[in-house]
Design a protein that fits this description.
binds adenosine-5'-triphosphate, Rossmann fold, 29% helix, single chain, alpha+beta
């Protein structure tokens, strides 16, 4: 039997805000939008505000909210904040359960996009930094089960999940460098790519797709595993990825030289790079990857997901099909 306390808790909407996102703009915009949010949503649910105090704090806040039986946990910030909140929903590849069984739908994930890149918002055609549009979505509360990508690294401290794109080698190193230049807005991704290329070497990597035979892929420049289409602040890197089809789209760039990037950069933004000779595409449910030259100790092939640097190969990528209620 449900109690008054249960039904109140079911209506908790927990907003996980990164006050330092987008160079501090997220915190300012959040303060501005709060009165509108309270007046449009506050009648039907309890608005709980939780500001992150450091990287990875968002994982903890989200996990506790799911365990407490919140109706929704909403990431307020960029793809990095969304990545943390999403990762709080899972442990060991399974959805975290509420401490006490309760009636009603499971906790849903929502997003108010206010980051630098906001690549997941781009996939859905949502505007970044448009609080009115974001509140509309929360008020309508249309939920759909979305696929969730998972990345497992032997050394990573936490379980990692992604909704946009995970990748390794040049793209991941570029993303890592870009994160240090967020004050330049979307230009940070160009700076990241140029700097990463200066010390980059294409590498032979061993890969195993969907549990089949291991194969060496020679001279890999970068490989991207997309649950949705965009990364790097608007590059349409996995142009046919669909977060509702139960699979991940993999795009591998091999044997790229520095001048290929200059000549072909525009194709990455248009999504037409998949037609180039040095690019292959496939769809996967799991992918295991290791450095063919230096199987266990190599710390030079970077791995990222949703723009967050996670560590280095070896890594395993997989999809949890239609696992999570997402507010569209
Ligand atoms: N309170 C905090 N102080 C410092 N860093 C934080 C804090 N909370 C979260 N972070 C870190 O800030 C990073 C970036 O956050 P976020 O994604 O919200 O903004 P962004 O980088 O500007 O946007 P995008 O990821 O869309 O480009 C994440 O790596 C996250 O771990």
């Amino acid at each position: 039997m449900s109690t008054d306390a249960d039904s109140r808790r079911q209506r908790d909407y927990v907003f996980v805000v990164n006050p330092n996102g987008a160079n501090g703009r997220t915190g300012q915009q959040w303060k501005k939008m709060l009165p509108d949010l309270k007046s449009r949503l506050g009648k039907d649910c309890n608005i709980r505000e939780a500001l992150t105090s450091a990287p990875l704090h968002g994982v903890e806040i989200a996990r506790k909210a799911v365990q407490d039986g919140a109706a929704a946990v909403i990431a307020v910030g960029g793809d990095g904040t969304l990545h943390e909140v999403l990762s709080g929903f899972f442990t060991d590849g399974k959805l975290v359960q509420p401490r006490e069984a309760r009636p009603g739908p499971r906790t849903a994930l929502g997003l108010i996009p206010m980051g630098t890149g906001s690549d997941l918002a781009r996939h859905f055609g949502w505007k970044s930094n448009d609080s009115h549009e974001a509140i509309d979505r929360l008020v309508k509360d249309q939920r759909r089960k979305i696929d969730v990508g998972r990345v497992q690294l032997p050394d990573d401290k936490i379980d990692r999940y992604f909704l946009s794109v995970a990748s390794f080698h040049l793209s991941a190193k570029a993303g890592h460098i870009a994160s240090m230049y967020k004050k330049f807005g979307n230009l940070c991704y160009v700076i990241g790519a140029i700097q990463a290329f200066m010390t980059h070497e294409n590498k032979d990597l061993r890969m195993r797709k969907d549990g089949s035979q291991w194969t060496v892929i020679p001279q890999v420049t970068a490989a991207c595993i997309g649950n949705s289409k965009y990364f790097g602040g608007g590059m349409k890197i996995t142009p046919t990825a669909d977060p509702f089809n139960g699979r991940l789209e993999m795009v591998t760039l091999t044997d790229f030289k520095w001048y290929d990037f200059i000549l072909k950069l525009h194709t990455l933004y248009q999504g037409t790079h998949v037609h180039l000779d040095k690019v292959t595409t496939t769809s996967v449910q799991t992918l295991e990857v290791e450095d063919a030259e230096n199987k266990s100790k190599g710390r030079d092939v970077y791995v990222q997901a949703d723009g967050e640097q996670l560590g280095f190969l070896p890594a395993k990528f997989s999809v949890l099909p239609q696992e999570l209620d997402f507010i569209l």
